[in-house]
Amino acid sequence: MPLDSTMWDLVRDRLAPIDVLTVDAPGFGGSPSGAELQERYGRPEPSLEVFVEAIRESLDELEVERVVLGGMSMGGTVAATFAQTYPERVAGLALMDTNIGVDDADHAAIRRESIALCEEGKGYESVKEWSNFLVSPASPESVRQSLDRRFRLFNSASLAWLQRALLDRDSAIGALTAIDGPILLERGADDATCSFALLQQWKELAPRAKIIEIPGAGHFVADEQPEVLAKALADFYRQAA
To answer: Which regions form coiled coils (predicted)?
Structure first.
């Protein structure tokens, strides 16, 4: 979230001269819709595997064999699914403010409510509170306003597709043991959706993983603390590359 590659603008500019590729989710930015990608890859239902195949195809077209891969929020789930599917193509994995397991009952119910609103053309209404309760109290109002502006641009049908893909996903916990490179586990210190205890559980599966908490940030660290996050990612890239 917010689902198109502009969410990384403040971080990407600080990562030069690293060659950074950022991704628009299906139906957002310049990407084809989820339905188009389903047809391309012969998938009958929305799924993260569709997203993964689109990333794989893009890397093939760019002749990129191996990447240091990162994802935040939903993007972290996609990144882990990619790493679990194509571990030989992942030199390092950075998972940020995410859940790579499956939804519990409460989160699944919230996701179904979001899908129902999106089906009524109310994609913005399904996410409008995110800019309040998912942002750190320490973040300036300008961060909330920027997020809200982007949420208002969400296409309801595209958001519904992604929520369905997430609702029906398999666990991607296997990514932690599938790759042989370093792993970074990051959370904003004020992110209520991604606990430190959860990251500790993941680290038990992959002891080499490094956990970092970024103070003064909630769920949207790329917007709230871009300079701190960029430094952490640059250091991680140097370790993995």
So the answer is: none
- Mean pLDDT for 128-137 is 94
- Bridge partner residues of 29 (DSSP): none
What does the pLDDT read at residue 3? 80
Whether residue 2 has pLDDT greater than 60: no
Yes or no: domain 5-102+170-240 corresponds to CATH 3.40.50.1820: yes
Task: State how far the Cα of 155 lies from the Cα of 32, in Å rounded to an integer.
Answer: 13
So where are the chain's domains? 5-102+170-240
For 156-181, write each residue's pLDDT tens digit.
999 999 999 999 999 999 999 999 99
- For residues 151 and 131, the answer to whether their CB atoms sit within 8 Å is yes
d(CA 101, CA 166): 10
